[in-house]
Amino acid sequence: MTVDPYGRSCRCGNRGCLDTVVGAQGFLELLRDVYGERLEISGVLEMAEHGDMRCRRALTDAGRALGAVVADLCNLLSPERVIVAGPLFAAGEMIIRSLRETVDHRAIPAAASRLEIMRSPLDERAEMLGAIQLALDAAAVGGLGRLGGGRGAARPVVGAAGPASRTGG
What is the CATH number of the domain that holds 30? Predict the structure, then answer.
């Protein structure tokens, strides 16, 4: 999702995507000119905690960028809860406060007031747990052969001549 049409090039080929501002690598690129190529998120968080204004400002700006996107989603979908995850959110209130303030400022008041913004308790485990859940769901619904596809997806079929592939629903 584009947050700055004139922003830095993104790995997807677009410009100014949310990932260039809030994604760990994009976020670090904003600060590496000053702090060096070896800068890591943990270092940014530590410096921000100790009062470094550049790091604090970068975290606040990242929260605002994400807040603008969440506000747009609130206006369209009116979710009850938004769960944020990733290494930047270890900054806690330092980033979540600016996210919340931006949502409150830009979203329809009725949608913003009902919205709960919380940090995911899963953090780095989210992708793995999601993949495991998908596999369990697929196994429960009709076997692992259904993983990755609904109607029209290729599924293995074992016949008298051995394994083959067929398409169908």
Answer: 3.30.420.40
